[in-house]
Specification:
- With 472 residues, this protein is an all-alpha fold.
- The chain has a domain at 310-419: Cytochrome P450-Terp, domain 2 (Cytochrome p450-Terp, domain 2).
- The chain has 22 helices and two strands.
- A two-stranded antiparallel ribbon has the order 1-2.
- Strand 1 (84-87) and strand 2 form a beta hairpin.
- The protein is globular, with a radius of gyration of 23 Å.
- The two termini are 41 Å apart.
Length: 472
C-alpha cells in the first residue's frame, strides 16, 4: 500500500486519546467541548446500527431497475447518511429539524454578542455532529477553538502563492486542502497503529482542524487571484468563524454580507449524502483516506458545472435579463424573457431540483434574509430575482417539461453576494466549498465511528447487462 502521508519526527498516534481526555477534563460548569459531545453520541449510534443489522439486514429498500443503473443511480437508497434527510415535499431536515427550526433554535450571532442575527455555521456543525442543539457557551467555545486552529502552515501558504492567478480558484482550493494531509492526525495514528473503534477520534480532530483552516485558504486564494482582502489572513480569537472570514476577504465592516455568509454557509452545509461533493467525500473516506484527502476530492466534484457552479450561472442569466428588460421590469416583460429562454432550447437556471418537488426551503430562508435587509430591498438585481420567482413557476408549469417548477437555492444566493460587492463569479463555488465541509466531514466521523466498510458497488458493461436481461 502506498501512503500519501509524509512522516513526521513524532507520530501522534496517542494524541487523539490525550485530546479526548483533555476535552473531558476541560469542561466548565456543564459546557461540553464538541469532541466530548460527539463521544457521548457514538455509543448510542453504534447500538442503533447493530440493532438495524440484526433486525432488518435482509429487508428490501426497493427494486433496482435498469433506469437506475443508466440514470446515475438516481433515487436508489444506497447510502447511510446521518446528518440530514432530503424529502421531495418537505425539503431538507437536519437531524429532524427544518431550516425554520434551526433558525429559531440554533445559537446565532446576536446570542453570542456579535453584529448580526443569523445562525452560526458553528452551531450547525455541532448539530450535524451530535444531533443536539448546543448552548451559547458551547458555540462560543467552539468558535474560539476554530480561531485558535485557523492559521495556515507556511508551506500551504507558499503552495497557494505559487499558483498562477489564472488557475481556477477551485483547483487551488482542492490542492491546498489536500496538502494539509501533511499534518493529518488520522494518517499519523493509522501509520503507528490504532484500534478501529478509535478511528473516529483523529478523524474528528482532522475535521475540526480543516473547518478551522478553510476560511484562511479561501481568503488567500481570493487575495492572490483577485487582489482583495488583507493578504495576511489574520485571525481574531474574539470573532466567530465567518466574522474572521469576512475580515480576511476585506468585508469585515460589512455586517450585511457577514451575516449573509453565516446564513449561506450554515444552510448549504449539508443536503443529504447523494450529491456529488458529499458522496465523493464519503467514497474516498471509505478507503480510510484522511479528511483532508477526502474533502479535497469532494471539492473537485463541487467544481463541476452541474454542481457547485449553478449559482453563478443563475446570476449571469439574471444580469443578462436586467440588461435587456431594465431594472424595473414588469411581470409581463419577465414572462416574455422566460419564454424566450425556453424557446431557444435553454433551461431557466435556478429552477427545478433533482429531488425536491416544492420550493427549496433554502431559497425561502435567503429570501427572508433579503426582506429583512433595507439595502437589499432597494437592490434592483435582488428585486428582479424575487419577481422572477413569482413569475417563473407559472411559465414552467405551462411549458410542462419541468418536474419541479419552483426556485432552488441557487436562484437567490448569487445575487446577494453580487449586491454586496463580492462580484467575482469564479470565486462563488469556493464559498460553497467552505460550507459543504460542515456536512461532509461530520459524516466521515460517523463513518469511522460506525465502522462502515469501503464502498464498492457492482458495475456492468452494456454487453453484460444485455446478457443478464436476456436481450442477446
Amino acid at each position: 500500500m502506498i501512503s500519501l502521508t509524509i512522516p513526521r519526527v513524532a507520530l501522534r498516534a496517542a494524541a487523539p486519546s490525550r485530546q479526548f481526555a483533555a476535552a473531558a477534563n476541560g469542561s466548565v460548569r456543564g459546557v461540553k467541548t464538541l469532541t466530548e459531545a460527539v463521544g457521548e453520541v457514538i455509543p448510542k449510534k453504534r447500538e442503533e446500527l447493530a440493532q438495524l443489522k440484526s433486525s432488518s439486514a435482509d429487508k428490501s429498500l426497493g427494486e433496482v431497475k435498469v433506469s437506475n443503473l443508466l440514470g446515475g443511480m438516481r433515487g436508489l437508497k444506497i447510502m447511510l447518511w446521518e446528518g440530514s434527510v432530503l424529502d421531495a415535499n418537505t425539503g431538507i431536515t437536519f437531524h429532524g429539524k427544518t431550516i425554520p427550526d434551526c433558525e429559531k433554535e440554533l445559537p446565532n450571532a446576536k446570542d453570542l454578542g456579535l453584529g448580526g442575527k443569523e445562525m452560526l455555521p458553528e452551531s450547525m456543525l455541532w448539530l450535524l455532529l451530535t444531533g443536539n442543539v448546543p448552548s451559547n457557551e458551547e458555540v462560543k467555545q467552539l468558535s474560539a477553538e476554530l480561531a485558535a486552529k485557523g492559521k495556515l502552515p507556511s508551506f500551504v501558504e507558499k503552495i497557494i502563492d505559487s499558483f498562477p492567478k489564472t488557475l481556477h480558484p477551485m483547483t487551488q482550493f482542492a490542492a491546498a486542502v489536500g496538502a494539509l494531509n501533511h499534518d493529518s492526525a488520522f494518517a499519523a495514528a493509522y501509520t503507528k497503529g490504532i484500534k478501529k473503534t478509535e478511528y473516529w477520534q483523529p478523524t474528528l480532530e482532522d475535521s475540526i482542524d480543516l473547518v478551522a483552516k478553510l476560511p484562511a485558504i479561501a481568503a488567500r486564494i481570493y487575495y492572490n487571484v483577485f487582489g482583495k482582502g488583507d493578504g495576511q489572513q489574520k485571525i481574531d480569537t474574539s470573532k466567530d468563524l465567518i466574522g474572521n472570514y469576512a475580515e480576511m476577504i476585506g468585508y469585515g465592516g460589512n455586517e450585511g454580507l457577514t451575516d449573509y455568509l453565516r446564513l449561506y454557509i450554515a444552510i448549504h452545509g449539508d443536503h443529504e449524502g447523494g450529491n456529488v461533493s458529499a458522496h465523493t467525500a464519503h467514497l474516498v473516506g471509505s478507503a480510510l483516506s484522511d479528511p483532508y484527502l477526502s474533502y479535497s476530492a469532494a471539492l473537485l466534484g463541487l467544481a463541476g458545472p452541474l454542481h457547485g457552479l449553478a449559482n453563478q450561472e443563475v446570476l449571469g442569466w439574471a444580469l443578462g435579463m436586467q440588461d435587456k428588460v431594465g431594472p424595473n421590469a414588469s411581470h409581463e416583460q419577465i414572462k416574455e424573457y422566460l419564454w424566450d429562454t425556453l424557446k431557444s432550447g435553454r433551461v431557466v437556471p435556478g429552477y427545478g431540483h433533482a429531488v425536491l418537488r416544492r420550493p427549496d426551503p433554502r431559497f425561502t430562508a435567503l429570501s427572508r434574509f433579503c426582506d429583512d435587509r433595507p439595502e437589499l430591498q432597494q437592490s434592483s438585481i435582488v428585486q428582479l430575482v424575487k419577481k422572477v420567482s413569482e413569475v417563473a413557476p407559472g411559465v414552467l408549469k405551462e411549458h410542462g417539461k419541468t418536474a419541479n417548477p419552483f426556485p432552488n437555492v441557487d436562484a437567490a444566493s448569487g445575487c446577494v453576494l453580487h449586491e454586496y460587492g463580492l462580484s467575482e463569479f469564479r470565486y462563488y463555488t469556493v464559498i460553497f466549498g467552505i460550507s459543504r465541509a460542515i456536512g461532509a466531514l461530520p459524516q466521515l466521523v460517523m463513518d469511522r465511528a460506525l465502522g462502515l466498510p469501503i464502498e464498492r458497488p457492482k458495475s456492468m458493461s452494456i454487453a453484460a447487462l444485455n446478457k443478464h436481461l436476456g436481450n442477446n
